[in-house]
Amino acid sequence: MDDRQFRNAMGKFATGVTVIATETDGQVHGMTANAFMSVSLDPKLIVISVKEDAKMLDRIKESNHFSVNVLSCEQQEESMIFAGQKQPEEEFQFDYLEGVPVVRNALVQLSCEVYNEHVEGDHTLFVGRVTEMELKDGDPLIFNCGKYRELKEMESVSN
């Protein structure tokens, strides 16, 4: 199988869209990612996956903190900005949670400290210990087969 075929297969799995953010030397950096999952309730741990050649890799290692921001269905533009697909019209403004930059109005904002890291293939998996969380109501932004999507309720099936 070739790389494109594998990537297409993985794209069939619908995911939420997050922005990972950190701050180094007074500069905030963000990156769109869909490789995110929860791992443990006790302690509260999550995992993100960052490609080895991504600038964010060294920035997270330097700061030892990062945020995970689950985007709402109204935040496609933010996803595109941090994926490098769109230039912001003005400087992007972050909020802060426990001293870590977070995306304003995200459905979920998680402030994390690096708990562990593992190099696997061409990515580093950062295990983050969640130190604080903010939660808002709303529907998530979904990504599937290379396109942004929104949730839609289905009619229940009766037996």
UniProtKB/TrEMBL annotation:
It holds the Pfam family Flavin_Reduct. Keywords: Oxidoreductase. The keyword Chloroplast does not apply. Residues 10-150 form the Flavin reductase like domain. The keyword Oxidoreductase applies. Gene3D superfamilies: Electron Transport, Fmn-binding Protein, Chain A. It comes from the Bacteria. SMART domains: Flavin_Reduct. PANTHER family: FLAVIN REDUCTASE, FMN REDUCTASE (NADH) RUTF. This is Flavin reductase. It comes from Thalassobacillus devorans. The lineage of its organism: Bacteria, Bacillati, Bacillota, Bacilli, Bacillales.
